[in-house]
Amino acid sequence: MADALVVKDLCKRFGGLRAVQDVSFSVRENETLALIGPNGAGKTTAFNLIMGFHRPDAGSVCAFGREMVGRRPHEVCAHGLARTFQVAKPFGGMTVLDNVMTGAFLRDRSPEAAREKAHEAIDFVGLSSRTNTAARDLTTIDQRRLEMARALATQPRLLLLDEVMAGLNPAEVDQAVALVDKLSSRGLTIVIVEHLMRAIMAVAKHIVVLDHGQKIAEGSPKEIVENPEVIRAYLGSGYAQAPAGAAS
Amino acid sequence: MRLRGWGGIALGIGIAAMAALPLVVRNAFAVDIFIRILLFAFIGTAWNLLGGYAKQLSLGHAAFFGLGAYTSTLLQLDFGISPWIGMAAGGVVGMLASLPIGWLCFRLRGPYFAIATIATAQVLMLIFLKFRDFAWGAEGTTIPNLGNAPLMMQFEGKTPYYYIVLCLLALALAITASVERSRIGYYLVAIGEDEDAAEAIGIDVARVKRNIYMISSFLTALAGTFYTQYIYFIDPQTAFNFSVSIEAALVSIVGGIGTLWGPLIGTMLLETTSALLQSWLGNSIGGVQLTVYSLILMSVILWKPTGIMGYVSELTQRRRSRAKGS
Question: Please, what CATH class does the domain formed by A3-80+157-246 belong to?
């Protein structure tokens, strides 16, 4: 299968802080890749670099065969990359439908067609009962659903999910995991940043671990939980004994 | 906003009433107040496209008002070109001026943007004050009175001016209504809510802001020409007056920013209040009417920041949900 995203030697400094240093990884089409690591490891910065919100100091981001570095976020989105934000950014005063329609307008200029696409995306994430609610009145999980629906409405091929499960209760995490699986089975390539190992084990086939801006490990979930470097930097020694699936 | 059923009928009655107004009210003082209401409703509606929908709080729309006024006056007095053509030319000048101004100011967000726009209008005023050879400097100039000359946008009564500004307002409202329903309308609101999120879903934020600023500036410049023709006088202080910028924002805020009818309703309320206060309190302690006026403004902004239109939609929503509940 072809590579959907190839990140090569990506570097970004903020003053004296090296937020991302020589990070390389690639994601195959229709694969789900997880980016994990402690707070401040550079995961969100990596997202911002990929999507064009920050310009990298060096390195390249190649999506579906095209270089993304130097493009503005809206151009990257038009190329088929969509993201959610760690802190949900709904258009608070708009209804759920209007929020998602705004995303759908990228591919369909007519309000009728955009409305239809928006309804599809809202159904897909399971938010139909909230269609006419103002976005600011939604619960946390529904705001995350809205972020996903709005991103989906732009009809991406690659979806970057930034901690969509943070702050959810266990039952909601299960729903979110099911949703990510559903997106994947629809053919989307997914890059997910997440802290919750239980969720990552459930969705990701491939994991990249960042620490202090550097890639310290990469591999299958099983390889990662057994990697002593990862256990030291991130997972903690509890993981050394516990089997992969049991931790949550 | 769809024009269906009662909404359409109300709109029809409204238009008929506005069109018939000067035929019923023949008092020149009253017609003058109507003209001022329509003029500021027009400027407010133009401002609202940028400031209301996209929440880019410009406090420098006097820049375009002044450029429109000077363009048509210079064309008329130096080249004898009719202000009708001058008005269109002024609109284009205002529109083009919005490009460098926007290029400079849109790097800033929130209050910094507002301050930067104030500065641009002030700089333009200073330019027209200092360079005397170019456009009469600080004294300004009067527009020669040609009597009844419709082709030169001069009329003997006030009624024709009323209809001109009514048409301008109708134009601005029609543009707003079509923007509101289109993709761009959604984009503007999205930008007003969160620029990063808007970019992330593929909106070219810089381009959308630039385009709406151009439309807003074009319309505001038309108002400048109209006003100069109406008062037969121009100088930098009136053309680039800060109060034009303030009024444009204020009527929209009071009426409800980001709504089609907000600026018109806001102007009707504010201008009427101000005129009434003037006639009731104007002869008592000096300046007391301005104090009362400011207090009214402060209370609206403090307690109903969504404006009158926001309050109305809140009420209808409450009634609807109550009807659903019972």
Answer: alpha beta
A93: contact with B, CB 8 A cutoff: yes
A153 to chain B, any CB pair closer than 8 A? The answer is yes
Domain limits, chain A: 3-80+157-246, 92-155
Evaluated on CA atoms B256, B261, B263, B267, the torsion sign reads: negative
Question: Which of chain B's residues have a Cβ under 8 Å away from the Cβ of A72?
Answer: 199, 204
Chain A environment of B200 (Cβ under 8 Å):
51, 53, 73-74, 77, 82-83, 85, 89, 151
H or E stretch at A214: strand A214-219
Tell me which chain B residues have a C-beta less than 8 angstroms from the C-beta of A90. 193-194, 197
Q: What is the ipTM of this complex?
A: 0.87
The candidate with the shortest Cα–Cα distance to A96, out of A123, A69, A70, is: A123
Q: Indicate yes or no: CB of B200 within 8 angstroms of CB of A101.
A: no
Q: Give the C-alpha separation, B190 to A172, whole Å.
A: 28
Could you tell me which residues are beta bridge partners of residue A63?
A5, A66
B204 near A CB under 8 A: yes
What is the pTM for the complete model shown? 0.88
CB contact under 8 A, A93 and B203: no
Beta-carbon count within 10 A of B294 CB: 10
CB contact under 8 A, B201 and A111: no
Structure-token pair, residue B172: 């601005």
Digitized pLDDT (tens) for each residue of chain B, 326 residues in all: 445 577 788 888 888 888 888 888 888 888 888 999 999 999 999 999 999 999 999 999 999 999 999 999 999 999 989 999 999 999 999 999 999 999 999 988 888 999 999 999 999 999 999 887 778 888 888 888 888 888 888 888 888 999 999 999 999 999 999 999 999 999 999 999 999 999 999 999 999 999 999 999 999 999 999 999 999 999 999 999 998 998 899 899 888 889 999 999 999 988 888 888 877 776 677 677 777 778 877 887 777 777 888 888 888 877 777 765 54
Q: What is the mean pLDDT of residues A85-104?
A: 93
Put simply, the answer to whether B203 touches A74 (Cβ < 8 Å) is yes
Q: Which residues of B touch A85 (CB under 8 A)?
A: 196-197, 200
pLDDT at residue number A240: 52
E-strand ranges in chain B read: 141-142, 233-234
Contact B201 A94 (CB under 8 A): no
**Cβ-based contacts under 8 A for chains A and B:** 74
Residue with tokens 């023949």: B26
